[in-house]
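pasting for ref
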Amino acid sequence: MSVPLQHDLKQLQRHILDRAAFVETAVEKAIQSLQTQSVDLARQVLAGNCSKDQTDNYLEEECVRILALRQPVASDLRRIIVIMKINTDLDRIAELAVNIGERVFCLDGLPPVPPPSQLSQMLELTVQMVHQSLESFVSHDATMARNVIQLDDVVDHLNGEIISVLIQAMQAGADHVPGGLSFFSAVRQLERIADYAAMIAEDVLYLVEGEMIHHKHSPARLDTMLMKN
């Protein structure tokens, strides 16, 4: 590896890790705001999202510049490709965290809907998946990445159970419909965050082992995910 390429990759790594830390914090705050119904925490998530665009653009432009100027090959090329993909996934996760914050604002003042008992576990697992997917990238840990992918199935199962409970609550009384719909939407955002964490884990396996896998996502994963509502 040439010295200029080595320098560029170190800078790229530093910026993607900074971005990852920012997004992970946003997810944690969004989930805490939903768990505690805290409008103040939700407001922090929305406010923090306003400063992300410049970093997003820098990372994308820097990856393109390195590809064009340094012409990396083999593992260096895989690393740049993975950083580009993870940057996009982090952007989507940040948007979903904002969506959760917005749902918390909607819940404020509405007749309370008892949180489904499965919600606490789903919240915990989602945070765990985001953290471990990013940690597996930092440490090149394929075992941890595979664990994240397996947890995605658990989150999907919990999501189905929670949706069923919310539907029953809304059917029991019209007063529960507005809050139930907002909760329904927030839980869907959680499930999508878990999906993107699994995608990052898939990228880590590609980086570490050169293995391109798709746990349950099509090659056009971003378009498909963005259409899920």
